[in-house]
Model the fold of this input.
Amino acid sequence: MTKKAPKNEQKTAKKDAILALDSFLIGKEEAEIEIIQNKHVKKARTITGIRPTTKLNKQEKAYFTAVANFLNDAGLLEVVDCLLLTLLAKNYAVWSLMQEQLNNVSDYFVTHSNGTTSPSHFYNVSQGAENQILKLSTKLGLSPQDRSKMLGALASAEAVKSKTSKQDNLNNLLNE
Done:
């Protein structure tokens, strides 16, 4: 008969997994990722409470949570981003799995019975997932360039909101 871990230990496992991935995403070299493999994480929880739109495995949950927390810290997270984050996590897991299969140069090619070669299925699936990751990352502002564009657009929108002209008839009408 298996004994269920106390609730306090389950909560600690969730916090440890999130902290480990947060530190990894931020760039700390010595992040303790093995915590995630040893502990059970039931649901992907973020600071903001955004949840995945479909069921995710352990690796996908951890990635979803880390990216959501990163975007939240950058001020770029909205509730409607949960679908994009879910797709990003799913594609990341597929890409990661395919990369594990591509160890040698020979793993990238398949030789057919007629002697011709073509890219392997692992490579093709990896490339498809990578393309989706790049597209979704751009939409979510995950590269420094994308973030600067998004934050620049936000700053411009705020600047336009604050600009008024004394000769503006609409402003005069609204201020009456």
The chain has one domain: 7-161. The beta strands are 109-111, 117-119. The longest strand covers residues 109-111. Residues 9-15, 26-43 have pLDDT under 50 and may be disordered.
